[in-house]
Amino acid sequence: MAGDVPAELIPPGAVPPPVATAPAAVTDGDSTGPRRARRALRGSGIRERRRQQTRDRIVDAATELFAERGFDAVSVVEIAQRAGVVEKTVFNHFPVKEGLVFDDDPPMRAALLDAVRRRPAGESVSAAAGSFVVAAISLLGTPEAADGVAQMARVIRGSRTLQIREREILGELTGSLADLVAEETSAKPGQIEPWLAAHAVLGLYASLLELARDRVLDGVSGPELAAELRRQGRRGLALLQFGLAGYAKSR
Predict the structure, then answer these.
(1) 3-class secondary structure, 248
(2) Hey, what CATH class is 29-100 in?
(3) pLDDT digits (tens, 9 = 90+) for 86-136
(4) In the chain, what are the domain boundaries?
(5) What DSSP designation does 100 have?
């Protein structure tokens, strides 16, 4: 789910797949070489478009079935039948069933790391990564996103398998961010600061995501939800930037 729009919120298929390019192989004395190359190039583009169309049909079929009956109750065979393909074609595109819901390498990973790398001098990792997270999650408050967020929430919360996979993905994102922080700070092996910083940022992301799901399932969306997500996000960001020393003191 582009300018400054966070990459992980771009809907699948919104960006057309790149058309493969190849040099026009010309053989000495063979004037048909360029024509063959152009035909090959067109054929490659057509094959890629057809492949993407098949992939989109599979995703659409899976989305419909998961919404109707839940992730665990739907078989890959049923998805293939609804998409009009054979089971092997589904596995060619998605080696594991969970891949129909979660990307193996979510675009958010690259976008988050890029936001950290591009931060201005003097800005902390928590400020850059946290601000990115708040901006990204706030977009889930738009009316256009409400139905998709609600549907995804029901599917994920109805499947133990997807909940486990989502936690794994968050763990992988945390590891990627921690590795970047460790590299930038030349941290020694075993140094805990990079992991603490990364866990804090991804903890904020997970908290805001669950809040968005809760509110959308309660029927809240649009400006009201976007404002709440920004407000709660700023509060969480303040804790990231200024520490927990003054939070929840014993009385």
Answers:
(1) coil
(2) mainly alpha
(3) 999 999 999 999 999 998 888 889 999 999 999 998 889 999 999 999 999
(4) 29-100, 107-242
(5) G
